[in-house]
């Protein structure tokens, strides 16, 4: 007798209606038809070949003999190669930032003792401007690799890392600290191992905010790209080929055509990155929303759909990534036993030997750390003794002027980012339309277009002080906007539907749902924007254009000028004062708001 094929949806419908068809869980799984290689796989293979070619080209550049002062070619034909170099540096810095985020953020969020040290240390690192990292990083790495470009390239990557890592770490830390209580209780009942809790609970819960903060990190990296590829230490200058150097040289020479072409290349690179990388990630991360039902108009990505249909990607996943994942899982299971498991019994002598070795290792590490800290403090005091009390007084006044500018910039940014961010985050349609636009505008280095704006603003009342506020705003408002968008996107659909069912008015909806839901993300955005504003003061209060230098009174101007002149004593004093001010603001304001977010505005 011939067999009649019954589609799966018909069988399921009959089962729900009381039919006698075989239950789905008892039927053998239907074999998927074999996928042959097609044009999609050919395109993916070409992209992989291009990526390998770029890496080989960059590796030959890294291992070449050291050449501090290279000639930047302003010809349009050099732009694709420069864009590739800059993109590779940004990618390496982002990978380093992601590793740092997961390790540092996890330890700070889960270890109470470490939290007391690591969070204030993160405040300090966030408050130090990129130009303050520059002398030590460049001199150390160039001295470590004196005969090749490896030191310069690593210095550029590390400097870009300092503009990317902090807001990503704060975002992950906030997500790990505000996990719903029922999910925490379930992980304890299920006796998840620490690594399972990390991968199955913490990382998924942080994914939406982390992706949007990653976009902001890339925007921050593009913002400081010119400073990280043009390394100036007093009379010494180090240059690296890239878009940042191209834009810097074009701005210094007043070459408007080259400046426009460089900015257009950067915009094209950002759009391609959004279409092929960020938009697929946003669509993929929608599965991690904390809600009972799925939203009808979820984010989509044609690139993600293509990758899911690719036979090459499926083969790589099945034959390479899954076996590697199984091996890693087995190793982690051996290293981290189940919570409460006693393990293999040890003798008292083995326990005593283990305690002695572990205790000795801790003592050695603490002693080495203490010696390093004391040596650093000694050299710091040697430099600071050259700073007089009069200079300290001027630094305090300069810090007050910069504080007022950062406050004005934050208030202006907050006034427009809340309504715009909520509108984008609550509407997947507008999110798809405006996400690339926001990324492009946020990623354009304001330092490249600032000289053009400076010509128009310097004649207005306030002069460069007003222009400095504008540049701070251009560099920091995106931290708030991206976090607000992430907060609005993470609001569960069932809560939004409840406000519609109960006819909640617009203002009441904002007061009872939207503002409480985005509040933790808003605190993270304001904290990182505050630190970013102080960092941006270094490039907004001291501007060099077409061989001319324009500056205004402020702490950022003092730091930038002392770095350009090689006055390391004043540079250190200004950096320390900026770090103290930012830490005080974080401790007195943002930490309390973080505590409020954890107590009152957490789902579950």
UniProtKB/TrEMBL annotation:
Major location (coarse): membrane
Residue span, ABC transmembrane type-1 domain: 83-276, 399-589
Keyword tags: Membrane, Transmembrane, Transmembrane helix, Transport
Keyword Lipid metabolism appears in the UniProt entry: no
Its membrane topology: Multi-pass membrane protein
TM ranges: 37-62, 82-105, 117-142, 154-173, 201-225, 256-278, 363-383, 403-426, 438-460, 466-491, 512-534, 568-590
Top-rank taxon, per record: Bacteria
Region (Disordered): 12-33
Subcellular locations according to the entry: Cell membrane; Membrane
Short name of any one Pfam family annotated for the protein: BPD_transp_1
Family: Belongs to the binding-protein-dependent transport system permease family.
Protein's name in the database: ABC transporter permease
């Amino acid at each position: 007798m011939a067999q009649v094929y019954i589609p799966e949806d018909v069988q399921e419908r009959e089962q729900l209606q009381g039919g006698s068809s075989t239950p789905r869980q008892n039927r053998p799984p239907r074999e998927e038809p074999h996928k042959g290689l097609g044009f999609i796989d050919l395109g993916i293979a070409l992209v992989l070949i291009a990526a390998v070619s770029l890496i080989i080209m960059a590796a030959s550049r890294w291992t070449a003999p050291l050449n501090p002062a290279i000639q930047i070619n302003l010809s349009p034909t050099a732009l694709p190669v420069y864009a590739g170099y800059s993109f590779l540096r940004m990618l390496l810095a982002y990978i380093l930032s992601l590793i740092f985020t997961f390790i540092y953020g996890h330890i700070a969020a889960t270890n109470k003792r470490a939290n007391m040290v690591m969070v204030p240390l993160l405040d300090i690192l966030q408050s130090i401007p990129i130009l303050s990292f520059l002398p030590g990083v460049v001199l150390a790495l160039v001295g470590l690799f004196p005969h090749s470009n490896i030191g310069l390239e690593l210095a550029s990557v590390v400097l870009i890392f300092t503009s990317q890592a902090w807001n990503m770490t704060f975002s992950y830390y906030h997500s790990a600290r505000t996990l719903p209580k029922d999910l925490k209780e379930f992980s304890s009942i299920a006796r998840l191992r620490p690594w399972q809790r990390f991968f199955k609970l913490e990382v998924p819960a942080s994914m939406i905010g982390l992706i949007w903060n990653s976009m902001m990190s890339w925007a921050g990296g593009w913002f400081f790209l010119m400073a990280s590829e043009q390394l100036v230490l007093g009379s010494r200058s180090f240059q690296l080929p890239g878009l940042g150097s191209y834009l810097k040289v074009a701005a210094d020479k007043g070459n408007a055509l080259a400046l426009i072409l460089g900015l257009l290349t950067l915009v094209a690179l950002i759009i391609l990155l959004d279409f092929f990388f960020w938009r697929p990630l946003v669509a993929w991360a929608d599965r991690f929303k904390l809600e009972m039902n799925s939203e009808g108009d979820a984010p989509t990505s044609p690139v993600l759909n293509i990758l899911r249909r690719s036979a090459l990607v499926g083969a790589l996943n099945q034959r390479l990534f899954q076996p590697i994942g199984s091996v890693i899982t087995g190793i982690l299971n051996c290293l981290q036993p189940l919570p409460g498991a006693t393990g293999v019994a040890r003798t008292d002598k083995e326990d005593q030997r283990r305690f002695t070795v572990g205790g000795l290792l801790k003592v050695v590490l603490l002693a080495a750390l203490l010696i390093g800290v004391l040596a650093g403090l000694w050299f710091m005091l040697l430099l600071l003794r050259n700073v007089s009390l009069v200079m300290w007084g001027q630094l305090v006044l300069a810090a007050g002027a910069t504080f007022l500018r950062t406050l004005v910039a934050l208030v202006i940014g907050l006034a427009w980012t809340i309504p715009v961010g909520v509108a984008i985050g609550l509407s997947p349609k507008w999110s798809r339309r405006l996400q690339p636009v926001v990324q492009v505008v946020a990623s354009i280095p304001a330092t490249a277009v600032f000289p053009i704006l400076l010509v128009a603003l310097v004649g207005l009342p306030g002069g460069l002080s007003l222009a400095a506020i504008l540049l701070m705003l251009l560099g920091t408002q995106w931290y708030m906007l991206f976090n607000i968008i992430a907060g609005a996107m993470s609001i569960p659909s069932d809560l939004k539907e409840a406000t519609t069912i109960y006819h909640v008015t617009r203002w009441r909806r904002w007061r009872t749902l939207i503002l409480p839901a985005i509040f933790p993300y808003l605190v993270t955005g304001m904290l990182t924007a505050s630190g970013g504003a102080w960092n941006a003061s270094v490039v907004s209060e001291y501007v060099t254009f077409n061989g001319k230098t324009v500056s205004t009174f402020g702490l950022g101007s003092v730091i930038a000028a002392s770095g350009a002149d090689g006055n390391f004593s004043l540079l250190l004093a200004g950096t320390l004062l900026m770090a103290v001010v930012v830490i005080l603001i974080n401790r007195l304001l943002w930490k309390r708001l973080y505590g409020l977010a954890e107590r009152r505005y957490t789902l579950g």
